[in-house]
TrEMBL record:
Species the sequence originates in: Pedobacter quisquiliarum
Gene Ontology molecular-function annotations: 2 iron, 2 sulfur cluster binding; electron transfer activity; metal ion binding
Name listed for the protein in its UniProt record: Ferredoxin
2Fe-2S ferredoxin-type domain location: 4-108
Family assignment from sequence similarity: Belongs to the adrenodoxin/putidaredoxin family.
Pfam family, one: Fer2
Any one GO BP annotation for this protein: P450-containing electron transport chain
InterPro entries: 2Fe-2S_ferredoxin-like_sf, 2Fe-2S_ferredoxin-type, Adrenodoxin-like, Beta-grasp_dom_sf
Lineage: Bacteria, Pseudomonadati, Bacteroidota, Sphingobacteriia, Sphingobacteriales
Length: 108
C-alpha cells in the first residue's frame, strides 16, 4: 500500500466485507470516495450535511474519527433509525488516522 493511502472497508448486506485503498492526499470525504467506488449513496445535498442520504454506520474505527459537529448531529437526529455509531460520510475527511475503518451503508 502506498503511504498516501489507507484501507477503508465496506460491509455489504450479505455480511461480506470489501476492503479498498483510499487516498488521503486528495482532500476527499468518505462520501466522495464511496461514490467514486460506485456505492449507492445519494448524497443529495452534495456534502453539505443537509440531507443525511450519505449516512453510514461505523463498525470499526469509530474512535479514529473527528468529533461530530453540531450540524452533523442535528441532521442525524432527523433519522428515525439512527444508531449510536451512525455518521454522515460527507463530514468525514479521509486522513491517515482512519486506516482500517469499516463501515456499512446505513439501512442496508
Amino acid at each position: 500500500m502506498e503511504e498516501n493511502n489507507i484501507t477503508v472497508s465496506v460491509q455489504h448486506p450479505d455480511g461480506s466485507i470489501h476492503a479498498m485503498e483510499a487516498p488521503v492526499d486528495m482532500g476527499l470525504s468518505l462520501m466522495e470516495f464511496l461514490k467514486a467506488s460506485e456505492y449507492d449513496i445519494l448524497a443529495t445535498c452534495g456534502g453539505m450535511a443537509l440531507c443525511a442520504t450519505c449516512c453510514v454506520d461505523v463498525l470499526e474505527g469509530e474512535e479514529k474519527l473527528n468529533e461530530m459537529s453540531d450540524d452533523e448531529y442535528a441532521m442525524l437526529d432527523t433519522l428515525p433509525d439512527l444508531l449510536p455509531n451512525s455518521r454522515l460520510a460527507c463530514q468525514l475527511k479521509l486522513n491517515p488516522a482512519m486506516d482500517g475503518l469499516v463501515v456499512k451503508l446505513h439501512g442496508t
